[in-house]
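Problem 3 from the worked examples.
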Amino acid sequence: MPTRRGLLRRAGVSFFSSGQSVPSGRSATRGPSVTRGLFCARALLLTSFLCAGPVAAQAPLTVIDWLGQPDSTAPLPKTVLLEPPVTGSAARPHIVVTPLQALLPPIGLVPPAATGLPIDLWRGSDPQDIADLIHRVSVQGNPAMQSLLFTLLLSESRPLQAEGDKVLLARLDRLITLGATDPAQALVEHAGPTATASRFRRWFFTTLLSGDEDRACASLIAFPYLAPDYRARIFCAARRGDWPTAALMLESAHALDLMPKEQLALLDRFLNPDIFELAPPLPLPIKPDPLTFRLYEAIGERLPTAPLPRAFSAADLRDVAGWKAQLEAAERLTRAGALNPNQLLGLYTDRSPAASGGIWDRVAAVQHFEAALNSASSDAVANALPAVWQAGHWPGLKSGLPISFPPNLPGSN
């Protein structure tokens, strides 16, 4: 193995006894400055070569002490799949794309927080099945079931589909059948009465019974295609003060036989009352609709509402009807749960009874009992209570009258 001196000698460095070295093969006859410079350079080279051995043998230094340490952790075992394969082939699977739809706004008058019913009440049901059940369910004679049905019909709920109003129309029809024309009118106005012809037809008929037909006629004039029939256009044109247009449409209906003769005769008297002033009354219709009812009322031949469906009783609650007709209509609607008992109490106490017997006895009993309550006399209340209790047990009214009076009677404790 060569020594350091041998390696340096191969590099061309000669050593002398004096400690000076000159490159081999070179002449030593140089000047003192050149010889001294060469000696210093070779001395530095020798020093760096001699010190390179121990430095190279040391490990590299690092700031983080554990960074240079070897990894002693055992390698992770290979992953074992214990689940079945997700596909049987490499073919591209069939992908079904369904666009996301925004939630439909709820339709109703009472929020879910008040009714306790979920807003997606009809979800997962067939619209036709729900509509049939709403039409068929019987609640007559059961006040609790009547109240629950009204809560169901008026509660806010999302429609089942964007197109089609089967559930909404069933709710409106059942409300009208029960006589709750005001809630039905408010419900269809909340849903949008001019969105479809079916909605407008129900809105138009409810406004005829409530006496608010001017708004419906304004919408009908603006959108004639919503008219349920030709009579409605003639009626609304006359109500809006456009008599020439109404007369022209009636003459066209005569010429083209657009309506039955009974309806044409009724419209003739509606538009020309002076011509038929001495004519005999028209025969009573068998199954009048709200428009026929209002036309008979307009010509001075008002139809009684007692033999008509319950919804016509709402027309007697207007100021144009007499007090007795209002009382009878209110009692009829209260028995069906379609009228607030407080409204019936307000009619009972509106004025003094005009006679005795029948409904007038109930009016007198209620007024006497209210006066006893206002007097705060236990004896007066005890004397008036039997009569009003008997009046409250009139068929269908026992669930309405107790609600109208406060529970804290004088001396009850």
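Problem 4, a separate protein:
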Amino acid sequence: MKIRYKQTEKGLKEVAKVYTAGEHNIDRTKVDEKAVSVIRRLTDGGFETFLVGGAVRDLMLGLIPKDFDVVTEASPRQVHQIFRNSRIIGRRFKIVHVVYKDKIIEVSTFRSLKDHEDGNDNRFGTIEEDAKRRDFSINSFYYNPLNEELLDFNDAYKDFKQKKIRSLIPLGRTFIEDPVRMIRALKAYVITGFSLSFFMKSAIKRYSSELGRVSTSRLTEELNKILCTGHSGEIIRELYRYKLLVYILPCISLHAKEVRLYDTLREYDAHVLEEKAKGEKKSVLDLYVPLFSSFIVLPDKDLTYQEKKADVVRQIKILLSPNTPSNASLEHSAITFLSDNDIKPVKRKKNRNKKKADAGGGALNATSGGVGERTKSDCEKGGASEADAALSPPGAEIGKMSGFNGSAGCGLEKTGSQTGNIRKKKKKPYYYRKRGSYAGKEKNEEVS
């Protein structure tokens, strides 16, 4: 173990313990290469950069993290300048999303502790200040995959060995500042198997109503994360036990005691863990089906497939309220549910043997001077056919006026007046005309 020091006015001060690869036992190969690439480029740019949060905790447990969060001393603008495939998001605290084809790496800047106490989250600070602002001790490790060193600023390694979850912020303040921390505490409790103190359990029950003021977008994000853990059934059971589920899924909480809900989630979780073992990622479109599949009422058989799908989407929205999944997720979930119940769209057979309406075309050509009845040989001879001879005087006059020259069919093919092949020459727009050119000609003509 090494010690990290910081120079102060009173001299050197110990700020963190540094554990080497042989001590923390993190498997470097489980770290996503895109996250390593982001850390390497920021480090090469002169900025201290680490992996942080639940990803490091999962690596220490031997698990494969779902997401990799990166923290750096570079400002969001500096990060954005290094990565062209990035975008700056957030209002309360700006972060950067480095976007790849199949993954998004979230990069945040060290946050200031002093400004946080004043209620300002838009100021940046040092890594020591950022470590003090983490929610729980087991989520406050900083890991550098380049040199494989693990930094511990809060004596969190001791908590990790004792398998306990400790809040770094006083319990009377932490859940009021960010009520989502209550969800994260229970999620960490289920995933890691670590213990919660009596005081933390009491605080979660006491401040559970604070979850009612969290935005629907954040609740949806946390619900998606829960469904991707492979332990969603156990987490939802604990959320119900601590009276938090009523604020996340109020309709589902009415049925939270039913065994069929947890049976469905157990099968789903087993499938998620299988995919994780294979290195596959669960699609967001497939997340919600196990939550509502036990409670959806099948639509009436007399309805069309589109009407059935619309009815299922309506029921899903009610069951998942106040969460706001994307319309694509809702439609995909409805289609999956209908397919599981052997309800599929009826495929229409294409009629390839359509008859061509030739009779109407022949009659139309006869009225225009018998053009449709003439043959190629007649045109080559240049003579008039019987159809031309049978033309009425008005018809013949029309033929002469249109340039048929006594041969209606050949005249039509040559001039193209009936087929619309002759294009009228369009005048150029006024901004293409030379200034004064047309006006001058008109004046000259008038004078002459």
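Solution to problem 4. The first strand starts at residue 2 and ends at 8. The mean pLDDT is 81.
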